[in-house]
Amino acid sequence: MINSRITCAYLYTISKYGYPPPAGDTLQYLDEFKAMGFQSIELEGIREDHLNEVYELRQGISKKVKELELEVPYFCAVLPGLSSDNPKEREHNLELFEKGCEVASALGSVGILDNAPLPPYQFPEDIPVVRHYHEDVILAAKFPENLNWKKYWEQLTSTYREACDIAANYNLTYQMHPALGVLASTTDAFLHFHDAVGRDNLRFNFDTANQYFLKDNLQLSLRRLKDYIDYIHISDNRGKKVEHLAIGEGIIRWDDFFETLDVIGFKGHFGIDIGGDESDVADLDSAYTHAAKFIQEKL
Q: Residues near 147 by Cβ (< 8 Å), separated by ≥ 6?
């Protein structure tokens, strides 16, 4: 049985069934997590329709989680509309965020997770329904002509302050996931955002692959963020593009990484986050079980 601090991230399911994977098949996904030997798993509600479906199914999912003796320490609610420049859209997404917190609470989670705020990009269509925004997509985006950055920043941080307070009402931390193109993608950016929001339950979901690609020094970042990290997404990277590779397929210095975790006294969860369309992973199950064994040996 895999150590309960080692979580199977939802990227496993996304890699197998697409983005977003059918919410109605969540009970099947739970069986698959269990069959690989995981005790701890991650689930998601991706944008409005998918999140609402998971919300309606939450009691059945919670029952199955208990039957399989699983834990869901973190539930992810993907809501890019929280950082919209439209006040009504932000308000609507705060309502959806509270639904996400209800799901997290029903699952016994300790935190709710989302990508860090997306700037008010204007894409040729709507915000692309993708996990990560490729450089060419971001470069093709524009901004509203009447965007007043100071006013937008004040509204944005106020919205996230309210989201943190909603999460706190459910005894949840609010985890910010770093990615290319978001406003808290690096250590410096998160610390700036955290100071502006001013809520202790705003946390940083450390992501080894994304931060390595963004040239964040992982050892230094761990030291600087030690008081803000409860959850680490683990995957490898070669430093040239956004990818989430099996351990050993990239060039991250894992011995240095785990030595630094010992230095800062990290006691949280590790989410194995391998795969996705951007990554070349030949055998997904083996990549996850190998990573779990690797992390377990380090622990």
A: 85, 120
What H or E segment, with its residue span, contains residue 46? strand 40-46
Residue 152 exposure: Cα atoms within 13 Å on the Cβ side: 18
Question: How far is Cα 20 from Cα 72, in angstroms, rounded to an integer?
Answer: 19
Helices (H), the chain: 11-17, 26-35, 47-56, 58-67, 87-106, 135-140, 149-169, 187-197, 208-213, 218-224, 254-264, 284-298
Higher-confidence position of 231 and 133: 231
Structural domains in the chain? Answer: 6-298 (3.20.20.150)
- Cβ burial of 9 (10 Å; 0-12, 13-18, 19+) is buried
| Amino acid 127: pLDDT | 56
The residues, ordered by sequence, that sit 6+ positions from 262 with a Cβ below 8 Å of its Cβ are none
pTM over 0.85? The answer is yes
**21: amino acid identity, one letter:** P
β-strands 40-46, 71-78 pairing: parallel
* Residue 289 one-letter amino acid: T
Which residues 6+ apart lie within 8 Å of 283 measured at CB? none
Q: Using one digit for the tens of pLDDT, what is the confidence trace for 253-278? A: 999 999 999 999 999 999 999 999 88
